[in-house]
Amino acid sequence: MKYLKLIVLSVLICNCANTKKENTVLKEQIKTNEYFAYTKEKALKVVKTGFNAGDSYGEVWIRDYNTFIELSAEVFPKEALKENLRVFFRLQREDGNIVDGFIPKEKAVQTKDGYTYIFTDLEPNYAGQKNDVETDHESSLVQAVYKYVKKTGDTAFLNETIGGKTIIQRMEWAMEFLLNHRWSDKYGLIWGATTADWGDVQHCHPWGVYITKDTKYAIDIYDNAMMLVALDNMMALAPHIKQKWQPIRQDIAQNTMKYLWDDKNQKFIPHVYLDGSPFSEDFNENNIYYHGGTALAIEAGLLSKEQIKVSLDKMISNVNASGAGSIGLTLYPAYPEGSFENKGMFPYSYQNGGDWTWFGARMIQQLIKNGYIEEAYQQLQPMVKRVKDNDGFYEWYTIKNTPEGSGTFRGSAGVLYKAIQMLENYANNKPIE
């Protein structure tokens, strides 16, 4: 028995030594990676040029700004960052909802088939727009405020008053909009229109950004995970509101796993429909795996460490099966031809199976946070490599790894920069966050 104990101890010591050696090698790889320095330098240059989503957009969108506000803080004074947040709050509607984006009033030219612009007495310079098929604008703004305060330490901003309400009160008002106007009593979850994973193009209408009489309402993982993250952020900023919001947060988390998690297949169901599916009866939508919504679910703390590994394995399998360049693949398999009226939503295009670093790098961040450092490093490589190969942060990539959309997509720059920073902190024995 004594000899057996010595053998076991020797094996443990050997394993520890091997692990330490592996960690040392990985840390050195992170420190010397040829693409990391280039990507970070390029990200800083891109974000210096403004706050709109990219060179093909005139608007500042909150779902994008939320993902690069921390990077913007590296090159802009906090007053500039804060003013953008103020504009969203000044444009907040009478029911508490938050606009999708804003644009200077002089550029807000109304067209027959374009956006219906939103104006308020509180905001003299900008007009708002709201893509109301998506339900992430309110959550995105709360998350952006949290990131701003954590990055700058400007807690005084939370008590600043706009139109008689403090920033904290306006954040709560935005969350109350979701409870009052986007809430399913049957499921205890929030709903939106039928879109592809985190996308903001619904199945019906040639454009697909406005709720219409043909909209099919559905519950999905992305919207509800985003709200959970926002509630966590809001309560962290204002602990005195926990008594009200913590039970709501717990119920949403429980109901998300109850109704959206497919335990047999270890994945999230794409949609729970409130008034019937828009797709044909012979189409099994649950064959589709949502990459982006799953990443956000991990951020919301819904999956165990083991489930995170299973999710990553599925994503890698999907990448291999599709031929895509990275786990930023929106979903797999893609919705069939004709599932969306918008002509840009054909299979493996745009939000219907395009490869978006904007979400892939968020999955990388969650892998790092949950201790999957080596896996995160490996899966990040194709994302940083194509930044250098294509000299830019493109909006999305085809499954042949061809860049598409804006080449200065700041959301991609923001999430990549943060992922690299987290890995470098690990390599230098610093706190990851």
TrEMBL record:
SUPFAM superfamilies: Six-hairpin glycosidases
Gene3D superfamilies associated with the record: 1.50.10.10
Domain Glycosyl hydrolase 94 catalytic: 51-339
Highest taxon, organism lineage: Bacteria
Record keywords, A-Z: Glycosyltransferase, Transferase
Any Pfam family hit: Glyco_hydro_94
Listed InterPro entries: 6-hairpin_glycosidase_sf, 6hp_glycosidase-like_sf, GH94_catalytic
Protein name, UniProt field: Glycosyl hydrolase 94 catalytic domain-containing protein
